[in-house]
Amino acid sequence: MKTYIVGNWKLNFTVGEASIYLHKLLKTLPNYRDLEIVVAPSTLALQPLSLQVDRHKIKLAAQNGFYRDTGAYTGETSFAQLRGLVNYAIIGHSERRYVLHENDKEIAKKVAAAIRNHITPILCIGEIESERAFGETKDVIRDQLIGGLSEVSDDELAKVIIAYEPVWAISSAKSAKLASPDEIAEVVDLIRKTLSETYGAKAAEGVPVLFGGSVNPSNAGAYLTVPGVNGLLIGASSLILSEFVDIIEVAKRVRA
Ligand code: PEP
Q1: Which of 6, 8, 39 is the best mutation target for the ligand 1 pocket, counting ligand atoms within 8 Å of the beta carbon and taking the most?
Q2: Of ligand 1's atoms, which has the minimum distance to the CA of residue 163?
Q3: pLDDT tens-digit series, residues 130-141
Q4: Which of 13, 144, 158, 247 could form a disulfide with 18 if both were Cys (CB 3.0 to 4.6 A apart)?
């Protein structure tokens, strides 16, 4: 399986800034065969960047999309419109769940809409600090995983990526803490067990599971060697080109 390095730019960079970043990144990177390098710019930047990107080196992801393909849905952008512009879409990010109040039902429809439009969903799941403190992590992870995949058939599971992002470890959290490799390993194992119960062991094994939460060049190596982790989803550190490149270099060394 490839190792995924995904940069989530969130609501940062103008289209011009995003284009300059991409230009520099493309110039810096060789074509890494075993690494899948992905950046998720704002929706506005996807069209111009899709014309600029060299997809042998870097793929684009949307940060969101709407579950209906067309219709009277003011302000939305559908996966049908994103089709061809991006290879991936981040779905169910904690900021969309907790700031924008998206629920598992909507997230499941978005996952289905992405697949229907040939876009690989990166389904984000993760517990908040109080849920971990009250021993609810397992239930939350299972609920979000089963809920988010509720419209995904056996055949479609191979088209899905899961990102485990403990919300308390995301750098924008009020008092963000680093997740330990053991804490991550335990949840990643639970994710695979849950997938295995629903879709069978073989199908579960093939699903890439990424980790995200304050990843930077100094801890990326440790996180990439957690058993079962197939890549990283990176927020803040991906906004600094040199740090994102350093993380890619770490991934290359770890996977060599
Ligand atoms: C994220 O929000 O997906 C994320 C992982 O952010 P950060 O790397 O800044 O913690």
Answers
A1: 8
A2: 3
A3: 999 999 999 999
A4: 13
